Recover the amino acids of this structure.
């Protein structure tokens, strides 16, 4: 994916228009040493459409994490690290698959740690495959949603931040899932119902609303 504009123009020049001179200067210095996946992730974040000041600030925070921290994909970085998640929908887009997360005891989308992998879209697809068992999954590599949330302390791991990048994954074949030990159960939900369900995690409602608007 390219940042909109002249394809011959350095990406950080366009970022200068999109994000401001301070951030673009930082990115310009780092681009020469970034891996391709890290570089592409930064471009994808730059292209993520925001609505309002709060979402714009959140995108800036994600971009600063990617640009400024070579260990941003490692779970050992407890100040905050990147994770990848999948908004799994049916071919017609009317239903989404959620898992009743065993550790967090909430209905959430499939997702997990990057463990050093800057290909967060690939991480999202991997987690969708492992946690749902669905065949014939199709990944849309465009960033769909961003969410920063705290993970409670568990065992020797203290409370920490997840910077979660979500991608759309379509179930192109059977809707028969199998699940794994990460969840109590999995279930298909009507997206229109998810958009209105007050008892769900706020980010699930937001993704459902975003999906309906896009559809």
């Amino acid at each position: 994916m390219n940042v909109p504009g002249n394809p011959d123009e350095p990406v950080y020049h366009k970022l200068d228009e999109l994000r401001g001179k301070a951030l673009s200067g930082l990115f310009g210095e780092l681009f020469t040493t970034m891996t391709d996946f890290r570089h592409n992730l930064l471009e994808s974040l730059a292209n993520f459409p925001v609505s309002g000041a709060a979402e714009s600030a959140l995108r800036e925070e994600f971009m600063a994490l990617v640009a400024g921290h070579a260990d941003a994909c490692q779970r050992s970085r407890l100040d905050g690290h990147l994770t990848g998640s999948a908004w799994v929908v049916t071919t017609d887009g009317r239903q989404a698959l959620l898992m009743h997360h065993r550790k967090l005891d909430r209905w959430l989308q499939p997702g997990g740690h990057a463990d050093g992998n800057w290909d967060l879209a690939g991480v999202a697809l991997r987690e969708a495959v492992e946690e749902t068992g669905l065949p014939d999954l199709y990944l849309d590599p465009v960033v769909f949603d961003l969410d920063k949330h705290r993970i409670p302390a568990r065992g020797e791991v203290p409370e920490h931040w997840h910077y979660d990048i979500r991608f759309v994954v379509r179930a192109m074949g059977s809707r028969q899932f199998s699940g794994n030990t990460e969840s109590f159960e999995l279930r298909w939900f009507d997206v229109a119902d998810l958009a209105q369900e007050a008892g769900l995690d706020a980010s699930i409602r937001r993704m459902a609303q975003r999906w309906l608007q896009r559809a």
